[in-house]
Automatic annotation (TrEMBL), chain A:
Membrane topology listed for this record: Peripheral membrane protein
InterPro entries, alphabetized: AAA+_ATPase, ABC_carbohydrate_import_ATPase, ABC_transporter-like_ATP-bd, ABC_transporter-like_CS, P-loop_NTPase
Organism: Fictibacillus terranigra
Protein name: Autoinducer 2 import ATP-binding protein LsrA
Localization, UniProt: Cell inner membrane
Catalytic activity entry: ATP + H2O + (2R,4S)-2-methyl-2,3,3,4-tetrahydroxytetrahydrofuran-[AI-2-binding protein]Side 1 = ADP + phosphate + (2R,4S)-2-methyl-2,3,3,4-tetrahydroxytetrahydrofuranSide 2 + [AI-2-binding protein]Side 1
Name of the top EC class for this enzyme: translocase
From TrEMBL, chain B:
Keyword Ribosomal protein annotated: no
Organism of provenance: Fictibacillus terranigra
Protein name: Autoinducer 2 import system permease protein LsrD
Pfam families (alphabetical): BPD_transp_2
Segments traversing the membrane: 12-32, 38-58, 65-82, 88-111, 118-138, 169-188, 209-234, 246-264, 271-289, 295-314
UniProt KW keywords: Cell inner membrane, Cell membrane, Membrane, Transmembrane, Transmembrane helix, Transport
Membrane topology, from the record: Multi-pass membrane protein
InterPro entries per UniProt: ABC_transp_permease
Length: 502, 333
């Protein structure tokens, strides 16, 4: 195995507006090394990878390629220096052949390229038919195409971003073989993953990224599951000590024990056998990492997407077959994760936005202009939305205020249960506090909230109890004192299952 | 905020209309006669009447290029029904239903095939016009002569006048009033805008997005049907190829009227004004001696220029707003 340094990062910093994402990252990838990079959501993994591949430029710090200082201003420059990123979802042109997909953007003649492709194919022992249409490839094969793309560009450092997230078990093991083979031939590999088992099977070296710094780094033999978890958790955080929003949580137990929302053995595309109850005036957290199936579950409960089987009851009534509108009318609303794509009507007025979910309510076919103005003013005030007037367009507001507009639109529908998906994603600190306060106010009013969040601190601070979702299943229910960062993090990464399994 | 109406696109169109009339009046004084102006509108009323419901389709994020073929199909159905002994007014009702059905067909195919509206309606454009030709051939009315000899009462529909105003212009008034109410004052209209701005968000807000987009195509079919009936009456002849060249003027009127081709923005008043501006331009240019080919060059250039003007004036408005906002936020903090 080569011991030559391939890519070295030194003191990489990156800031977005006021948000310091990378606070000085040092990392060294050797040739022939499989270097696993792990980190929670928002730790800065993707930002770091975008800097390495030339999509972003670092604010300060230096990259060295084989000891020589380099700067990449575009992915093309990174390719020339031998750095290639295989994205999580392969980017394939479906109507082109494998050969065309691989040779796109390369300048040599077709003949030379084909020769090279054949050679690579045979030295690696892959039997990928170059004349096949890309649309007929499985996702694993598409990844091979992406790898070949990188190798054709003489890449020496390949970055694999969660390559196994969409693969079957069999495909994973063949991918592992390929990755090991590539490392053996001297390529450096940065392997990003959420799955601990893969790390211990594959990696030579581990780096843990936490809050924009490498919190631990070393050969894989120096790590255990417990140590990884330890390093993943936010520094110095223990339950209840540093949380500024702790007051939001109500100590007194709700008296009413009848569930308002009941989900019974719900099966869908990305989740399996999900059952849970939510009581009146309760905040139920659903924790987990991105891709665990939480949004898919919420959308199925709300009726946006169909589920394979199972039932949803709201206040004792079976709502499994109702339309979205009927569910809203009965008091179930879903505040979507992707605010701009699913929540906001960008060029519509604020009042148009705020009344969009209750447009069909009320008598008559005509727009109740006066009432609309009243509702708009009420929610602008109640949610302290910073706006000039109710006629300005929603796109003119900041992210936090847009989120409040979406929240207001669904509050206007007078809900009993709110499915709140990533309520504070991409909004600033003050708007975040406003949202937290709102959640506790709603709770006092007896409204139940299902809080979906990738931020374990947010979940801990606000929830009465927590379900942790991992790969489409609710793997753990945490209550009272059991709601700890440790428990949430380890269950989110599916560690417990893997450790107890022989 | 008082200054805001001045920046509205409809105001610019009104200005354009006045300037246009003034220039033509200056070149050929006979042009300015009120009756001349009013009755020359008959020539392009069918464009305006089809463009009004088309505005809804485009605001909701769709498009219907089969509108011209729907005109021809409704015209020939009217003619064939009448020539087979059906009462002419009953035939008119049949033609209206035919327009609605054509729109429903478009809407259903678009909803359930999930193919882009442009592609679907391009297909149905050929389908409807082919159907019209087959029907007209089957009734031994050759494509270009058409079916004529309609009763006087029906011919008066497109040629007569009431209180000195030609009937087609009355139709325009009624259509404008009805669709203005529908789009700007009714819940339905609001939902059309919301679907056009962000159909996903509309879905998550519980709007019936399928019904809304389907209904806009039905309305567009209705517009094509009414337009076809009016043309049949105006020429007192039912032909399969009536309206075959209407589709581009109709969409041009909608887009020049300020409707965003990607949906979410637009108004009925804008569409009506724009269709009148284009109609008078065509008429006026020919009145001062240009051939229709030469007139097309002028109209094309005018279109491009005014859409460019709209883009830049829009940016100015936004700039002005931003300044206002920063000024007021300076005061706040």
């Amino acid at each position: 195995m080569g011991k030559e340094s391939l890519l070295q990062m030194s003191e990489i910093k990156k800031q977005f507006s006021e948000n310091l994402v990378l606070k000085g990252v040092d990392m060294n990838v050797l040739s022939g090394q499989i270097h696993a990079l792990i980190g929670g959501n928002g730790a800065g993994k993707s930002t770091l990878m975008k800097i390495i591949t030339g999509l972003y430029q670092a604010d300060s710090g230096q990259l060295f390629m084989k000891g020589e200082p380099v700067q990449f201003n575009s992915p093309g420059e990174a390719h020339k220096k031998g750095v290639y990123l295989v994205p999580q979802e392969p980017l394939i042109f479906p109507n082109m052949t494998v050969e065309e997909n691989i040779s796109i953007g390369l300048k040599q003649t077709k003949k030379v390229l084909k020769q090279k492709m054949r050679e690579l194919n045979s030295t690696l022992g892959w039997n990928l038919d170059l004349s096949r249409l890309a649309s007929s490839l499985s996702i694993a094969e598409q990844q091979l195409v992406e790898l070949l793309r990188g190798l054709m560009r003489d890449a020496e450092l390949l970055i694999l971003d969660e390559p196994t997230s969409t693969l079957t078990h069999h495909e994973i093991s063949s991918l592992f073989k390929i990755v090991k083979q590539l490392a053996h031939s001297g390529k450096g590999i940065v392997y990003i993953t959420h799955r601990f088992s893969e790390i211990f099977e594959l990696a030579h070296h581990i780096s843990v990224l936490r809050d924009g710094v490498i919190s631990a780094s070393g050969p894989v033999s120096h790590f255990s599951y417990e140590k990884l978890i330890q390093n993943l958790m936010p520094e110095g955080k223990t339950f209840g000590s540093t949380m500024s929003v702790d007051h939001c949580k109500q100590e007194e137990k709700t008296e009413d024990k009848t569930p308002i929302l009941t989900v019974k053995t719900l099966f869908g595309k990305r989740f399996r056998s999900v059952s849970f109850n939510v009581l009146r005036g309760e905040v139920a957290g659903i924790a987990g990492i991105v891709g665990a199936g939480r949004t898919e579950l919420a959308e199925a409960i709300f009726g946006i997407s169909q589920c394979v089987s199972g039932e949803v009851f709201l206040d004792g009534e079976d709502i499994s077959t109702l339309s979205v509108r009927e569910r809203i009318d009965r008091g179930l609303v879903y505040i979507p994760e992707d605010r701009s794509a699913h929540g906001v009507f960008s060029i519509a007025s604020l009042k148009g936005n705020l009344t969009s979910a209750i447009l069909h309510k009320g008598k008559g076919w005509f727009l109740p202009f006066k009432q609309e103005q009243k509702i708009a003013e009420q929610y602008l005030r109640q949610l302290s939305i910073r706006a000039l007037n109710s006629c300005q367009s929603a796109e003119s507001l900041s992210g936090g205020n847009q989120q409040k507009i979406v929240l207001g639109k669904f509050l206007a529908a007078d809900p009993k249960v709110i499915l709140f998906d990533e309520p504070t994603r991409g909004i600033d600190a003050s708007a975040r506090m406003d949202i937290y306060e709102l959640i506790s106010e709603l709770k006092k009013k007896g409204i139940s909230i299902v809080l979906i969040s990738s931020d374990p601190e947010e979940i801990m601070a606000l929830s009465d109890h927590v379900w942790v979702m991992h790969e489409g299943k609710l793997v753990k229910k945490l209550e009272n004192d059991a709601i700890t960062l440790d428990q949430i993090t380890s269950a989110s990464f599916g560690v417990e299952e893997e450790v107890t399994a022989p | 905020m008082k200054i805001k109406w001045f920046y509205r696109w409809e105001f610019f169109l009104l200005l354009l209309f006045i300037v246009e009339i003034a220039i033509f009046g200056w070149i050929s004084p006979g042009f300015l006669h009120v009756n001349n102006l009013l009755f020359s509108m008959n020539d392009f009323m069918f464009i305006s009447i089809a463009a009004i419901p088309m505005t809804l389709v485009i605001i909701s994020g769709g498009i219907d290029v089969s509108i011209g073929s729907i005109m021809g199909l409704c015209s020939i159905i009217l003619g064939v029904s009448w020539s087979h002994g059906v009462n002419v007014w009953l035939a008119v009702i049949i033609a209206i239903f035919c327009g609605l059905a054509a729109g429903l067909f478009n809407g259903l195919i678009i909803l359930y095939s999930r193919v882009q509206p442009l592609v679907v309606t391009l297909g149905s454009m050929f389908l409807f016009s082919g159907l019209a030709l087959v029907i007209s051939g089957g009734s031994k009315a050759s494509g270009y002569e058409g079916i004529s000899g309609f009763p006087d009462a029906f011919v008066q529909l497109g040629n007569g006048s009431f209180l000195g105003v030609p009937n087609p212009v009355w139709f325009l008034f009624v259509m404008t009033a009805a669709f203005c109410t529908l789009l700007h004052f009714m819940k339905y209209g609001r939902s059309v805008y919301l679907v056009g701005i962000n159909s996903k968000a509309a879905l998550y807000s519980g709007l019936r997005i399928k019904w809304i987009s389907l209904s806009t195509y039905i309305l567009s079919g209705l517009g094509g049907g009414l337009s076809g009936i009016l043309l049949t009456s105006y020429f007192s002849s039912a032909r399969a190829d009536l309206g075959s060249e209407a589709v581009l003027p109709v969409i041009t009127a909608v887009v020049l009227g300020g409707t965003s081709i990607i949906g979410g923005r637009g108004s009925i008043a804008g569409t009506v004004l724009a269709s009148i501006v284009i109609g008078f331009m065509q008429y006026g240019l020919q009145a001062i001696g240009l051939t229709s080919e030469q007139a097309s060059i002028v109209i094309g250039a005018m279109l491009i220029l005014s859409v460019m003007a709209r883009q830049s004036s829009f940016q100015k408005v936004m700039q002005w707003f931003r300044q206002r906002k920063s000024n007021s936020s300076d005061l706040m903090y």
